Predict the structure.
Amino acid sequence: MKKVVMVFLSACLLVMLLSLSACAPQENGGGNGETDVKKVGIVQIVEHPSLNTIRESMIDELAVLGFVDGDNIAIDYQNAQDDQTNLKTICQKFVNHGYDLIIAIATPSAQAAAGETTEIPVLFSACTDPVGSGLVDNLEKPGKNVTGTSDAVSAEQIMELALRITPGIKKIGALYNSSETNSVSVINDLKEYAGRNGMTVIEATVTNTSEVQQAVQSLVGKVDAIFSPTDNTVASAMPVVAQVTRKAKIPVYVGADSMVQDGGLATYGVNYVTLGQETARMAADILNGKKAGDIPVRMITEFEVYLNLVTAEAIGVTIPGDVLDEAVEVFDK
Ligand code: TRP
């Protein structure tokens, strides 16, 4: 009799254990382990503070949304070290290995990724001018395999801020990489604005970071202020720009907060943590099965004032009180 009870109890225990394991949490997306791990390639043209912020904020937000690297997604992050050939090699590798999603940070990376595949979804992040850069034809209905987020800033709004801080600018230096289509589009707006407001634009273009010092030096003595858009090449060499212009006492107005942190005087720019999170939301939608072409490009349209008071002091500029009040972030060391 005892034996029968024992056998019965063990059978019950077995049934309980089996049903418990059946209730165990499933992989995200109802997957069953390894085979369902999605491969996500992240390609970044270069490592500068703004692009790193975007990438980190995006990966953090993806985890919040249930896509955890090393768990249900496998992220392969590659930095092209500001080299077009590297960009191509990286994107080809992502395509040849049949990755499920390519996330391209900044315009040069996005152009390279979109050039390698019409099948794999390409999600771009922080591309200033997605249409002008040939990434999509229509922001609302991208249609193909490419969509993403844009950090388009307004040359006009940045110049209006510039004139509130340092009135009387007549000659403005334009410092940028002429092969970055993201910069060319903003510089065209700057030229148009200058034309309408009786200002002259003096260009100093570069093709890589090693040319930045000479280019900025070439503007010394010729301009009242310098403008640099969200240019990946200039952003990577911002400390050098700060060094030259602080000494020459020239205000530098830039396209992004990180360029202010690295010594530019001011910007009217977007929040890149928010932009990274927005990119993650779109990535999650694609990983959940939505077609990239059906997702409209997300433009970040909230701009805020960022100031660098160390630079202001170094060049002998007093920031007006109303501009100070408006700033969301003031870098003072
Ligand atoms: N908007 C840039 C592009 O289209 C990328 C970018 C984002 C950037 N944040 C920046 C460039 C800050 C310079 C500085 O490629």
Observations:
- The pocket of tryptophan is lined by residues 50-51, 106-107, 126-128, 151, 182, 230-232, 235, 256, 258-259, 272 (CB under 6 Å).
- Residues 171 and 200 are 5 Å apart (CA to CA).
